[in-house]
């Protein structure tokens, strides 16, 4: 069997899809979770700085700006820059820069907002990359604003700081996706690998595969049937061949035997003619047998038969002429009733052989001095050809079997009268080639009545 492969495998495709999907999903989920954590952490830092600013504002003492600055300097602030801004925006004090050198801060968003709402937070990107400054401003009773500032790492530098951890989690994600995708692919593909095509419907594979498996089962069954038919045909043919050889041996042995006697001079001169006649008659039986075998094998091959309108009455008349001498020999009368208008479609030669075999049998199996009724008529859309005789008839239980090749009811009578045992097999096959059939009834005369029925030719 030739294997056709496209190079693609189902497991390869499923694995590639699963792996890329799971890797991307896990990566995105990890990044999203990290970003969410960073946000929460930032929010907490904002709240913390704001509450720190508020508590600083509450703890400031003094009436004048200088008193406030002094009190501010006393506060224990760590890593937090502290700025005091006057109501007009002038910087009064800054813990990390010279206040007088700093410009007016009234336009800073956190200060403007604090003046309106009491407190505010703002995050500003620093000019130096990687750092942000978080501001928390809070208004004091005197109209001044106290602002605390804290330097914070940005998301980018936060992630950069975690590069090792990120690299390791990337590796873990890669490995987990790889093994999980492999395991899932195996589970998906396993039932497909386990499909047993010798019994497709017994598989517990996917529902989606049922139509395909059903079709495979159907084809398997068809194949089995064809195989059975083929084996049957081969067996029949083998049996037929062995029967033919057997049937041929008999006349050959007789011919050989007579010839030997004559050769050995054991035949008296006056008997030579009789022996030659016997040899001729055996040779004639062989010729008839070979003709019948050839006719049957042509019918077996379904060789294209000619399709012409055939007048059954004409055919019967020719057959009667051909068999007149034989009938006369046994003192048999042929009574005919032939409708000249009855025509069927098929091969004229075959129709003649069919009628010949039926009339020939009616003569051979008839009683001495008996009668034969040969009828051609139409019945509905069918043509009927019937041959009835006054012989022994065919017992009902054998009416199917007599159409089998080499089946004889009365073997000795068949051989005596030159029968091959193939006549009715040819009749049955021939009838089928006209789209018809042949059956046996009891004749009113007590003998057999063979009825050939076939569709009338459409005029
Ligand atoms: P055969 O050459 O032996 O006549 P057939 O195939 O023509 O072979 O017929 C098969 C058998 O059917 C015959 O051997 C015979 O026993 C029986 N048979 C055929 N025709 C008649 C008939 N008209 N009356 C009685 N028996 C018949």
Short summary:
Helix 8 packs parallel to helix 9 and helix 9 (348-364) packs antiparallel against helix 11. The chain has helices at residues 10-59, 65-73, 109-117, 155-161, 163-193, 210-263, 272-300, 312-329, 348-364, 411-416, 423-433, and strands spanning 81-85, 91-94, 119-125, 131-139, 145-153, 308-311, 333-338, 343-346, 371-379, 382-388, 437-442, 448-455.
Q: Notable features of this structure?
A:
five-stranded antiparallel β-sheet; 53% helix; rod-shaped; binds adenosine-5'-diphosphate
Could you characterize what this model shows?
- By secondary structure, the protein is of the alpha+beta class.
- 53% of the residues lie in helices and 17% in strands.
- The chain has helices at residues 10-59, 65-73, 109-117, 155-161, 163-193, 210-263, 272-300, 312-329, 348-364, 411-416, 423-433; strands at 81-85, 91-94, 119-125, 131-139, 145-153, 308-311, 333-338, 343-346, 371-379, 382-388, 437-442, 448-455.
- A 5-stranded antiparallel beta sheet has the order 2-1-5-4-3, with helices on both faces. Strands 7-9-10-12-11 form a 5-stranded mixed beta sheet, with helices on one face.
- It is rod-shaped and about 170 Å long.
Outline the fold blueprint.
Elements: H1 10-59, H2 65-73, E1 81-85, E2 91-94, H3 109-117, E3 119-125, E4 131-139, E5 145-153, H4 155-161, H5 163-193, H6 210-263, H7 272-300, E6 308-311, H8 312-329, E7 333-338, E8 343-346, H9 348-364, E9 371-379, E10 382-388, H10 411-416, H11 423-433, E11 437-442, E12 448-455
Parallel strand pairs: 7-9
Antiparallel strand pairs: 1-2, 1-5, 3-4, 4-5, 6-8, 9-10, 10-12, 11-12
Helix pairs in contact: 1-5, 6-7, 7-11, 8-9, 9-11
This protein binds adenosine-5'-diphosphate.
Adenosine-5'-diphosphate is lined by residues 357, 361-362, 365, 389, 391-394, 402, 408-410, 414, 419-425, 448.
């Amino acid at each position: 069997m030739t294997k056709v492969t496209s190079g693609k495998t189902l497991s390869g495709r499923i694995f590639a899809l699963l792996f890329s999907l799971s890797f991307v999903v896990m990566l995105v989920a990890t990044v999203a979770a990290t970003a969410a954590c960073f946000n929460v952490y930032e929010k907490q830092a904002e709240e913390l700085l704001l509450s720190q600013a508020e508590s600083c504002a509450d703890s400031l003492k003094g009436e004048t700006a200088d008193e406030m600055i002094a009190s501010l300097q006393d506060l224990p602030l760590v890593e937090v820059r502290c700025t005091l801004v006057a109501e007009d925006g002038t910087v009064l004090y800054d813990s990390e820069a010279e206040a007088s050198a700093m410009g007016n801060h009234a336009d800073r968003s956190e200060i403007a907002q604090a003046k309106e709402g009491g407190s505010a937070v703002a995050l500003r990107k620093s000019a130096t990359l990687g750092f942000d400054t978080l501001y928390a401003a809070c208004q004091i009773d005197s109209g001044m604003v106290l602002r605390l500032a804290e330097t914070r790492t940005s998301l980018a530098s936060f992630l950069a700081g975690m590069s090792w951890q990120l690299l390791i989690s990337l590796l873990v994600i890669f490995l987990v996706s790889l093994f999980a995708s492999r395991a899932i692919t195996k589970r998906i593909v396993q039932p497909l690998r386990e499909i047993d095509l010798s019994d497709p419907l017994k598989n517990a594979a996917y529902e989606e595969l049922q139509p395909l498996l059903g079709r495979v089962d159907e084809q398997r069954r068809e194949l089995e049937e064809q195989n059975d038919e083929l084996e049957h045909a081969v067996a029949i043919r083998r049996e037929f061949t062995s029967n033919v050889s057997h049937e041929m041996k008999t006349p050959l042995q007789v011919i050989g035997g007579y010839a030997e006697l004559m050769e050995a001079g054991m035949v008296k001169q006056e008997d030579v003619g009789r022996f030659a006649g016997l040899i001729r008659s055996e040779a004639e039986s062989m010729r008839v047998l070979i003709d019948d075998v050839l006719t049957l094998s042509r019918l077996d091959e379904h060789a294209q038969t000619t399709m012409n309108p055939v007048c059954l009455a004409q055919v019967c008349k020719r057959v009667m002429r051909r068999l007149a001498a034989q009938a006369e020999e046994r003192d048999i009368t042929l009574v005919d009733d032939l409708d000249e208008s009855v025509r069927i479609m098929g091969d004229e030669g075959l129709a003649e052989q069919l009628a010949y075999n039926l009339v020939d049998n009616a003569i051979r199996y008839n009683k001495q001095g008996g009668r034969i009724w040969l009828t051609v008529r139409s019945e509905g859309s069918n043509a009927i050809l019937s041959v009835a005789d006054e012989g022994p008839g065919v017992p009902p239980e054998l009416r199917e079997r007599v159409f089998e090749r080499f089946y004889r009811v009365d073997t000795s009578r068949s051989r005596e009268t030159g029968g091959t045992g193939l006549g009715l097999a040819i009749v049955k096959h021939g009838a089928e080639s006209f789209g018809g059939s042949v059956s046996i009834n009891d004749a009113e005369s007590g003998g057999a009545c063979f009825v050939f029925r076939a569709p009338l030719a459409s005029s």
